[in-house]
Design brief:
This protein is 61% helix and 4% strand. With 1011 residues, it is mainly α.
Length: 1011
């Protein structure tokens, strides 16, 4: 049984924790509230429990700090409930691990696991993994009742001749557990007093006896083997308990390992007593950091929450898992009115409340300073001090200790989570916000920022001020700060008085279009919503709607009404109708999966744009037309694309509009003209990074990763795929396309397991967005890696979905998504040879007609496997040898190596072991040179039993899998379920296996498999 999995994003940290515990025996997990410290400890405790170790869990509460002995009493109660304490003289020793009850778990260490393999949700912890409810009680008077019954009041303990001190007769659960039985009398008395199961004398308990008693209880935990003690919330331990535990741990044997979990108190406790259980060295302290954006996306998927907005959720939460889940649940709760990319995040009271909890511990002066930082555009300690906070540095240092902000060397202030400044501003009254902006307006050193603060300091529209803000927006645009320009353009519109209605509408249109250029979907939607509520001209309404559509990214499914109104309002305006049709052409293919309708709209858009002298829209429409022509197998796709590229490149400066140039590169990729594609891309990328949109930059990095995956530059592919994802998440776009790219790169040079994970994420995000194009692509990536990994039943199911989607979209060109050869191989592996042959016969003439040479090579590889399955192994080997050589000539090393691996399989069937080993050796050399790590491992594997059992070479792959299942004891029904087959198919296949191996029963089959 393997070790329980780590929480999302914590595998490396968990490994470090295990190393520290092994080498030092003590570890302190520290970090901000909600970052997941407890979840890491839960995972380590679960691993310890799986090794048969005793695990003792103590969770504290803030109230414990003021109750003498509270934590120590809870620890004893937890020990009493966790282990069985046999009577004195029991041969089992002083302790014996308790036999787990069905469904029972250690306190704080859940035994059940979720389907995903992560620890089941804890009912005794807050959602952030920090203590919210205690496994044991907060009050020592109640600690004995933490697990059963109530303690007997002091002075009412009955006596017995053989038990003069009355411990055995006590009904308190701690006493009844036998926890005291191995302790000398004074220690028993002191510990019982601590737990309120013996009367307190006037002088209280004997401190020395109590120290020794607690130490003996912890020592006895290791009597049967290693033990792990987890103390969750050491900052809440009372002074007496801290002293007792320090002494006990000082005497504890090495077999007792300890994890302490601490949330630092930034502003200090009033009593100031030392809660440390030992003096930690740097090696003992493990900081639990926030999660990266991609890890937040994985966390959301793990909790079945919307992942398509993972980038924006990461910004809002700062990578804090508890905040991220709260924001994610806010979006899930809003499913009746789904949050679109162009809408602000819908934050429920829960998300706001969590932010308020983090901010609530800050003293009032610190909160006032933080409010100014939240209002400022570029907050620094000096700016805030000049704005009226003389103690700004001290306040910000305290906030940094609380992990609310980070301070750079130059005094720049950055909030750790976007939800924090949002909540500060949200909760501040208008007077405080106005005063803050007014103070900042007088001290900022930039005229654009000064105008912004002056406008935000008043709620009275003023045309002169609005004009100043509009000028500031133009200046910000010229500086290249498009995001600030978009914000200021909207602020100018909102500052315009009602009597200047025409001017306000003009500014709202400018704001929406500026927001579209800046990819600020939230601002575009705000501007459009304001404009559409007014008496605006039809042309203005269309322009505002187009701006929103341009920021929608992949998520176009919920915007049908906006398209309808845009078409109505553009009636009679040729230029605007051309723009609307262009957006519809994109929608038809992405959201509706209808390339024919998309092409028709693009053709009409291009014609209308040309008629009014609009080369920009014409170039974009022709690019969409060329993309659809390629998919539909039209012969003039390249000439249409050349026309679009000519219009686009006539625009100066280069790099602003790039759709046709990027599509040209992708066509070269589809044709496997990979060197040309890479050279063109490397020439374009710097221009786009300097002048183009973030979407174009993301597309280029994604395309570069795909090129490198095929050309054999696998490490570089992983780097560029990672850059594509980072930019996607930073821009708040759907991560589905970037995850697809990462799945390809991981399949080429990373890990098949990670590739499958990214592909599944891409499938989910594409389904959330309703993106038909990337749904097919991500399913293809998933099915391919499933096939390579040997999960042929799942691969067949996944690739059939690709087939259905592509046929529904009328896709003809097989080079754009090479699923045919993969599906054919999956069919062969599932004993559907005839269907595989028919599929290959169907695609081959299409590929020949379109001159897709490398598609034909992929079909040849699959057809060779078909020949081998039919027993024509000599023909198969000859075809695979020729195919491998041609892949090498085409500069496709991974395809070259894959063909050689297939050749080795066929050579084994021919019982030519030397030839098989030679093919594998050559494949391994090819993969190693390309940096294709997972393929290299694949080339090093030898199928189970083939070398030792030559007779098995007569079985097909599907028959071999069934033979192993049945040989291991699976019934026909179990094998059918495992392989996703009918029982009749299993019976027929098993009959063929018996005939080929000359066996008559399951027992003989098992014997044959063992050799």
């Amino acid at each position: 049984m393997g070790a329980p999995p780590a929480p999302v994003g914590r595998e490396e940290l968990l490994s470090r924790l295990e190393r520290v515990l092994h080498s030092r025996g003590r570890a302190l997990l520290t970090g901000t509230a909600g970052v997941g410290k407890t979840e890491v400890a839960v995972a380590e405790a679960a691993r310890a429990e799986s090794r048969g170790e005793t695990v003792l869990w103590l969770a504290t509460l803030p109230a414990d700090r003021d109750i003498p002995g509270a934590a120590a009493a809870a620890l004893v109660a937890s020990a009493a409930a966790t282990v069985t304490w046999p009577a004195a003289g029991d041969p089992a020793g002083p302790f014996a691990p308790e036999t787990p009850r069905s469904g029972a778990a250690l306190p704080g260490v859940p035994a059940p696991r979720t389907d995903a393999g992560a620890p089941a949700p804890r009912t005794d912890l807050a959602p952030d993994g920090d203590p919210a409810r205690q496994a044991g009680p907060a009050d020592p008077a109640a600690s004995g009742a933490a697990h059963a019954g109530h303690p007997v009041p002091a002075g009412h303990l009955p006596r017995h001749p053989e038990d003069p001190e009355g411990f055995r007769a006590a009904v308190g659960p701690v006493t009844a557990s036998g926890v005291f039985d191995g302790l000398p009398g004074p220690q028993r008395t002191a510990v019982a007093m601590l737990c309120r199961e013996a009367p307190l004398h006037d002088g209280g308990w004997d401190p020395i006896a109590l120290r020794l008693g607690i130490a003996q209880i912890l020592r006895a935990l290791t009597a049967r083997g290693p033990a792990l003690l987890v103390v969750d919330g050491v900052q809440h331990i009372d002074a007496d308990s801290a002293d007792l535990l320090r002494f006990a741990l000082h005497l504890a044997p090495p077999a007792l390992r300890v994890i302490a979990i601490e949330t630092p108190e930034a502003y200090g406790a009033e009593d100031g007593h030392d809660t440390r259980l030992w003096v930690p060295s740097e090696a003992d302290i493990l900081l639990v950091p926030p999660l990266h954006a991609d890890e937040i996306a994985e966390l959301l998927i793990h909790h079945r929450l919307p992942s398509r907005m993972a980038g924006r959720i990461h910004k809002a939460s700062g990578g804090n898992p508890r905040l991220a889940l709260a924001v994610g649940r806010s979006l899930a709760d809003a499913r009746n009115t789904p949050v679109h990319h162009a809408e602000a995040l819908t934050l429920s009271g829960r998300a706001r409340d969590l932010a308020r909890q983090l901010l609530g511990a800050a003293p009032p002066d610190v909160r006032q300073t933080l409010l100014l930082a939240a209002l400022a555009l570029r907050p620094t300690a000096a700016l805030i001090r000049r704005a009226g906070r003389p103690d700004a540095e001290a306040d910000l240092a305290a906030a940094e200790r609380a992990d609310l902000v980070s301070l750079a060397e130059d005094g720049t202030v950055a909030f750790t989570a976007g939800l924090l400044p949002s909540t500060l501003v949200h909760d501040a009254c208008w007077a405080d916000r106005s005063a803050g902006h007014a103070a900042l307006a007088g001290v900022v050193d930039d005229s654009v920022e000064a105008v912004r603060h002056r406008a935000l300091a008043t709620d009275i529209p003023d045309e002169a001020l609005a004009a100043e803000v509009a000028e500031a927006a133009d200046l910000a645009r010229r500086r290249g700060n498009s995001a600030l320009a978009a914000e200021l353009a909207l602020l100018a519109a909102e500052s315009t008085p009602v009597r200047h209605a025409t001017q306000r509408i003009t500014r709202l249109v400018d704001a929406a279009e500026e927001a579209a250029r800046a990819a600020r979907a939230d601002l575009a939607m705000r501007a459009a919503t304001d404009l559409l509520a007014r008496d605006a001209a039809r042309s203005d309404r269309v322009r505002a709607r187009l701006a929103v559509l341009d920021t929608a990214g992949q998520g176009l499914t919920g915007l049908d009404e906006m398209y309808v109104h845009a078409m109505e309002d553009s009636e009679g305006d040729t230029a605007l109708r051309s723009g609307v049709l262009l957006r519809l052409a994109v929608k038809y293919v992405l959201a509706d999966g209808d390339p024919l309708r998309s092409r028709a709209a693009a053709v009409e858009s291009a014609a209308l744009a040309a008629s009014v002298g609009d080369p920009r829209t014409a170039a974009q429409a022709l690019t969409v037309q060329a993309r659809m022509d390629r998919a539909l197998g039209a012969s003039d796709a390249e000439s249409v694309l050349a026309q679009a590229r000519g219009l686009e490149m006539a625009e100066r400066p280069l790099g602003i509009r790039n759709a046709a140039q990027i599509l040209t590169i992708r066509h070269a990729l589809f044709d496997d003209r990979l060197t040309d594609a890479r050279d063109q891309l490397n020439a374009l990328l710097p221009l786009v990074q300097r002048r183009g949109s973030v979407e174009d930059t993301i597309e280029l990095f994604s395309t570069l990763a795909a090129i490198e995956s095929r050309i054999g530059a696998c490490p570089a592919a992983l780097v560029h795929a990672g850059q594509s994802l980072a930019l996607t998440l930073e821009a708040g776009l759907s991560p589905g396309p970037a995850w697809y790219t990462l799945a390809l790169a991981e399949t080429a040079g990373g890990s098949f397991a990670r590739a499958a994970s990214y592909a599944r994420r891409s499938v989910q995000a594409s389904e959330e967005e309703g993106d038909r194009v990337f749904l097919s692509r991500s399913l293809y990536a998933l099915g391919r890696v499933q096939l390579i990994n040997g999960d042929v039943a799942s691969a067949l199911e996944t690739l059939r979905r690709v087939q259905a989607n592509e046929r529904a979209q009328s896709t003809v060109d097989p080079s754009m998504l090479r699923w045919h050869e993969e599906l054919a191989e999956a069919l062969l592996a599932n004993d559907a040879a005839q269907e595989a042959a028919e599929l290959l016969a169907e695609v081959r003439p299409v590929a020949e007609g379109l001159r897709r040479t490398t598609v034909l090579l992929g079909c040849d590889r699959a057809y060779a496997l078909y020949l081998a399955g039919c027993g024509r192994t000599d023909e198969a080997a000859e075809l695979l040898t020729r195919t491998a050589e041609r892949f090498a000539e085409a500069g496709l090393p991974l395809e070259h190596g894959r063909a050689l691996v297939s050749l080795a399989r066929v050579e084994r069937r021919r019982r030519r072991r030397s030839a098989a080993q030679s093919a594998l050796h050559t494949a391994a050399t090819v993969f190693e040179r390309a940096g294709a790590a997972p393929w290299l491992a694949l080339a090093s594997e030898t199928p189970a039993g083939e070398d030792s059992l030559p007779a098995l070479s007569s079985l097909t792959d599907a028959e071999l899998r069934l033979a192993h299942l049945v040989g291991q004891g699976a019934s026909n029904q179990e094998a059918a379920a495992k392989l996703y087959l009918s029982v009749k198919t299993v019976e027929a296949r098993l009959t063929r296996i018996y005939q080929k191996l000359d066996v008559r029963s399951r027992a003989q089959l098992a014997t044959a498999l063992r050799g």
